[in-house]
UniProtKB/TrEMBL annotation, chain A:
Keywords: ATP-binding, DNA damage, DNA recombination, DNA repair, DNA-binding, Nucleotide-binding, Nucleus. It comes from Rhodamnia argentea. GO terms for biological process: meiotic DNA recombinase assembly; reciprocal meiotic recombination. The keyword DNA repair applies. CDD domains: Rad51C. The lineage of its organism: Eukaryota, Viridiplantae, Streptophyta, Embryophyta, Tracheophyta. Involved in the homologous recombination repair (HRR) pathway of double-stranded DNA breaks arising during DNA replication or induced by DNA-damaging agents. This is DNA repair protein RAD51 homolog 3.
UniProtKB/TrEMBL annotation, chain B:
This is DNA repair protein RAD51 homolog 4 isoform X5. The keyword DNA repair applies. Keywords: ATP-binding, DNA damage, DNA recombination, DNA repair, DNA-binding, Nucleotide-binding, Nucleus. SMART domains: AAA (SM00382).
Amino acid sequence: MEVGRLPISAALKGKLVSAGYTSLSLLSSLSPSHLARGAQTAWDMLHEEELLTRITTSSVDIDNILGGGISCRDVTEIGGVPGIGKTQLGIQLAVNVQLPIHCGGLGGKAIYIDTEGSFMVERVLQIAEACSNDMSATNTVSQDVHAGKVGMQPRDFLENILYFRVCSYTEQIALINYLDKFISEHRDVKIVIIDSITFHFRQDFDMALRTRLLGGMALKLMKLAKKFCLAVVLLNQVTTKYAEGSFQLTLALGDSWSHACTNRIILYWNGNERYAYIDKSPSLRSASAPYAVTAKGIRNSVSNCKRIKLM
Amino acid sequence: MVSESMGSSIGQFSRWDGLHRPWSNGVELMEDAQKNKHVLSTGCEGMDFLLRGGLHKGQVTELAGPSSSGKTQFCLLTASTVAYKHMGGVIYLDTGNSFSAKRIAQFLNQISRPAFDEMQPIVLQKVMNSILCQSVFDIFSMFDVLHCLESKLKSQMCRGDNDEILIIIDSISSLITPILGSSGSQGRALMVSAMSLLKKLAHEYNLAVLVTNHTVGGDGGIPKPALGESWKTLTHVRLLLSRDCGSDTYHVSLLKHPSAASGKAAKFIINN
């Protein structure tokens, strides 16, 4: 390997080259390594994909279009206008991930990274109480009761949400870098929610620097999702874009960021109803489903004319 | 001071013994092109027509497009087609956790028997075992993987069996964007270095290479491929992809090709 391709600083590379070391073989003896390290065949991945469980969103319609819920090993971006329910959905997922597998969760903890300060702990308690009540209502004769275990209490739900508050973009990047070590020590974390990913990058930024930082951040989040097999959910704001002669609503952070997620869900208003639309996915069809934000959290919409639209 | 690689390259030209000369003449190239299969069909007729047959071995093809325009779908379709029809090995480097084995299985069922039952599990397993997927999350790991691949291909070539015929990197722009543009030209140097390594692998081991790129806003709001001016010269074939909002119809236009007129466009449908 040439010295120019090594991950070291330019100054160090210059020194090595001027001293006569232009390739790695001159520095040490190379041993051949195999490609098999880290690579998997598509057949093995097919079986792994079938075994991956998903996190329910508590709305059956949204779960259906998502193929069961939010999937692990994916970075899912959820965007929408203010007030559509992004934070509500984030909180619902932070609670739902703690449910046992037979109830649609993963039995794990949640990391909630708040950049705007929109995390209201009283609301989380309300959603956790509703979740706990729903669980005990449906599991009257369940394995837990047989085993003598008490159902999950709202306080347990709160205990398993690990909350970080970041106040600047440097803190945000530092935290995402730190997450690798943190999650290695807390292996039961199964979801990382960032609300919202855009806030600190929208004001007063040199565009070239922003593109580089966001690109690096996206790759780190992808690596986290894959390495620890957890779900990463990014909540994003909307902005207007001038295209084809008119102003359109589009997700913030520009074109280069729009490639940084595996799946994208857009939340929008249709008349008086809230809808979720799958905008980008490697394996799901484009579809939209209605949902509602109730006192108990995210639930199915109960209007008369609801239907799932396949695009 | 002459480095060892320069020394060996010079030696290659000065040491030939009249039997294995380091140059070929036009007739030999023509006969080779006609006799050997140098073109890999992508599985999509519109794309194959535009590319004059498909992906050419020894060349790097770039597919650029805005988000959700079908680049990953096209990469998965091409991987399935090459693995099934050409019986070759595919190396898929995935930077965005977008490789979906389920979708590959769906494409394979479509390709093999469009109207009948699903593919036999044994055949499906054999074909899917020839598609290797590796996640890479930074450009240095990509160099690592490519160097491992190079030593593997070198030892295979000595033994005489060459399995791999296609490398797909989806997407190379997400690896290059974080390093491009900072002070100093180190980012651009790494980008050029990466592409020269890919071209070398493509030429020496007779592989086709497909890379995807995203787009940025150009003049008048029309998307143009990202990665800047110097990137434009680094790939052999350049395609621009777009999709009508909410539909299954894709539009692709040819920006650059060594043997076809640019500006041609095609339309095709990839459905479920």
